[in-house]
Structures are given as C-alpha cells and as structure tokens.
C-alpha cells in the first residue's frame, strides 16, 4: 500500500497541486505520506501532521452537533427551523432535516449556478474582488440576510441544492438553543471528548496553527496572471459552511468515531446516512459508491488554495483523510476542479479498492 500511495500522491502533485498529505488507516495499520512542497520556492515537503483548512468538511461537524441536540430532545428533526430561529421569516416547510440535507431551496450566499448556464452572484469569491476582500469580515447575520434577499431556488423539499446558507442557519440555531458559541459547543461536544487538539473553529481569525502548508490562488486580471498566497485569510465569508481547520489525524479520529456510533445514537446515524435519491447526500455527509462496488461515507471541502478529503468505510475500519494545496500551475478554475476530481478518485481507489 505504501509504495502505491506514495506513487499516486506524487502523480497528484504532478497534475497541478503544490502539496499533498494523506493518511490511510485500515486493517493493516496506518500509512502517512506527503509529496510536493509546503511553500513555493522552498524544498520542504508538507508535514504529515500539518494543519489545513477543511472547507465543507465543516458541515459534517456542524450536522453532528445538530443531531446531538435532536438526540437530547432540544431540536425536532422534522420541526420547522422557524421554531428555533424566529425573526427571519423562514418558510415553515424548511425543517431541520431539510437544512442539513440541502433541500431547503434557499439561495446560496456564495452564488448560484443554474442548469441553463446563468449565474446569480453572491458575496465575492473569485478574481481581484475576492483577493481584495481576503481580510474582510462578515457576520452570520449578513450572510443569511443576503441569501434571504434573493429569490429561492426551489420550494422546500422539492429539489436538492447545495447551499452554504443552510449551515450558517444551522450554526445560528445551535447557538440560540445552547446559549454558547459554535466554537464552544464544538469543543464541548466533539473536539474535547475526542481529543482533537489540532482542530480549530476560527471564527474571523486569519491565523492557522503551525505546521501548515501554504495555499495559493492564481487568477487573471486584464490578461495578466497573478499568484497570491491565500493561507492567511478571514474565513468568516464562508462561516459554518466551511471555515474549520484540522489535520489528517483529527479527521480520521472524527469520522471513525462518527460512523462507529460514538457521537450520535444509532437511529440518528441511520438518518444521517440515508441519502437523498440520486444525489447521495444524507445529513451532512455524502454516501457514495466506489469504483470497485463498495460504499464510503464522505464529505470533501475546498476553496481557492485548499482542498480536503475525508472518507470512511461504513464500519469505520478503513479511513482516508487528505489535504491538497494549489500552487502556481497554469490551470483555470475548471481545470483545477477536474484535477481535484481525478486526484480524489485515484486516492479513494487506492485506499478502498487496492486492499
């Protein structure tokens, strides 16, 4: 396994990423490896214990906290979110389940892409406008109000549509019910009990703990390509939709504990892992088939500079967690997305099929 995985991650770097770190745990033990560089212009490889921005893997953590509140009777899974967040005028058909499942139909505050090719802009998230706003802070209230000011994409429960808005509302619901910040609840319920000392809920802080690799954003302005180090940024623009920081070890411990039933009761775990038809999204996780016919529980995450992978077999015995950073490769947005998709497929195949 070690030789093949190392070869795969070296090829992933060659496809356009500046650095990769991977951790695989299975019946044979643990394998960790890295390839590429931690920082452009310097020779050192990414640390296999390095911190990274996990993007939408954050959603799995948030969904877990919400389901813990459901287990305690503080929240009804099929109750209207309006019961817990009055004042936003939310459609009463928007339930907690639909919030976690992305079937609310609410506008995604980071922008909407429609089947006919049209785009509805949200907050700036690419180009010079994005770079200029890397230090800008947003409140959760601003993000939600922006989303609610836009036309809904569909009626609640009628269509699956991925929206960061849903998880910012979930954060606000957690905070209102618990009387504590999401960071405090996350520490109390997940990070502390599992010993996830490398995992951070950063809020608006641009800092990332050492050691860490650097992520870069390459973009075009007036025909000229520019490269910016986006390692330090204010992540409040995505909030609970994807702001957390972690390590491959912590993600392994978390997803293993989750699928192993250590965080939420079995009946709610079954609800979490019941996918929306054809889409494969449950409550804060994807349930997917591998190319060798197996099943994996997963959520990945990424934005400019960073990508994170978190996969587990349904029994938690095999996990694969990884971080990828982008560098100065001459790839546009679509090419970068395609390279990520290919890297993801290769790593999953190696970890879950080549046993």
UniProtKB/TrEMBL annotation:
UniProt keyword terms in alphabetical order: Carboxypeptidase, Hydrolase, Protease
One GO molecular-function entry: serine-type D-Ala-D-Ala carboxypeptidase activity
Pfam families noted in UniProt: Beta-lactamase
EC number: 3.4.16.4
Gene3D superfamilies: DD-peptidase/beta-lactamase superfamily
Annotated ranges, domain Beta-lactamase-related: 6-328
Broad class of enzyme this protein falls into: hydrolase
Protein name: D-alanyl-D-alanine carboxypeptidase
